[in-house]
Amino acid sequence: MQIPPFSLDEQISEIGDEIEKALIKVFRSGKYIGGEEVASFEKAFALAIETSYSVSCNSGTDALILALRSLNIGEGDEVITSSFSFFATAEAITSVGARPVFVDIDPENYLMDLDLIEKVITPRTKAILPVHLFGQPIDMDKIMAIAEVNNLKVVEDCAQAAGAHWRGKPVGSYGDVGCFSFFPTKNLGAAGDGGAITTNDFDLAKTIRELAIHGMPKRYFHTNIGYNSRLDSLQAAILNVKLTRLNKWIERRKAIANNYISQLSSIESIELPSNNLSNNSFHSWNQFVIRVMDNSFVKNIKSTSDDVFDNTNRDLFKNELHRLGVNTIIYYPIPIHLQPAYRELGYTEGSLPITEKVCSQVISLPIFPELKFVQQSYVIDRIKEIFQK
Fold first, then answer.
1. Residue 8: which of 243, 160, 239, 189 has the closest Cα?
2. In sequence order, what DSSP letters do the residues of 13-56 get, joined into one string?
3. I need a labelling partner for 26 at 20 to 30 A (CA). Which of 205, 256, 290, 338 fits?
4. Listing from the earlier edge strand, what are the strands of the sheet with 125-129?
5. Mean pLDDT, all residues of the chain
6. pTM of this prediction?
7. For the segment 101-122, what is each residue's pLDDT rounded down to a tens digit?
């Protein structure tokens, strides 16, 4: 049996007919940029996130860039964020001319260590950019309290967390702006790139909308140097179909996560996310990430995979699962602060020890709404088999 880390084919079998009808409607309208589908999605998404405004754009990366630009963050400014994230989190900060300042993560939940944020605030600090990693919300009450005391803006990176909540309120509704990605493998994914920015501020929404269309408040009149960053009507039509199912799909993901947690909790060699969840946190389970601990592995397993970054227990575990037909992904093998592109920032190995350790241990197990119980059982049985050798 082969188990993929995710499967978009299975999803299409459920909603394919409805998607086709929506796409044909767009084709027949002749309106491929903007139009009814985009306006409808923006309205529905704002309602889902419980914000006054939602502005769609080309990608989650663009959402971050547009958000930072709208807050006048640029050359000489600093933005505090996590190094344990996808590269775009920091890349967006750099793209507007600012400097990312990284803090280490909490080893219990892999999110920014909130006790470290105020220690790195300087006169140049303009914003905090918290990441709701893997669909798990960070404590937004504490983030907002720190921001208020220090007069900082808050840009939520919700790229992996559509549908997640903190204390009953959707992520993306706490900060000055929330930034979402609709990359195909996300909880809410398009059939290509797509993104959105949410906010309760009319002026910010207006600025973001203008920046996304070449800094153009009205046709051929440009007040800013902007971008060409629009969600096309075809992607909006697909997202309109999928948005109505998001909560149901998250419930399916939650059931899979609970099954993994229940069945794997007896294995001392791995750390499960079950121990990391706050009672205030509603996880959207974009990924199911475990840690393979350093003292845990089977000595006679040899690595033969080209997709191995180091000869760690995690990498050997990944290779053995692959041999057994269970395909996994590592989010993320190299922390951002140690990427060659950020060498100039001066971080070295040991700068963020918890982040670096976690990057050598984490691995994401298959999780998607259509993952059948028999497939889940196969994943669980193979993991037990590995650790019982």
1. 189
2. HHHHHHHHHHHHHHHHHT--BSSHHHHHHHHHHHHHHT-SEEEE
3. 205
4. 53-57, 195-199, 177-181, 153-157, 125-129, 78-82, 99-103
5. 94
6. 0.95
7. 999 999 999 999 999 999 999 9
The pLDDT, as a whole number, for residue 314 is: 95
6 contact partners, CB below 8 Å, separation of at least 6 = 185, 366, 367, 368
d(CA 233, CA 126): 35
Question: Which residues are registered as beta bridge partners of 329?
Answer: 364
pLDDT above 50: residue 308 = no
Residues belonging to the chain: 389
| Widest CA span in the chain | 69
Q: What is the number of domains present in the chain?
A: 2
Specify whether the CB–CB gap between 236 and 44 falls below 8 A. Answer: no
Task: Among 243, 271, 291, identify where a domain stops.
Answer: 243
Q: Which of 179, 210, 243 represents a domain boundary (last residue)? A: 243
> Is residue 51 within 8 Å of residue 173, measured between CB atoms?
yes
User: For 315-324, what is the mean pLDDT?
Assistant: 96
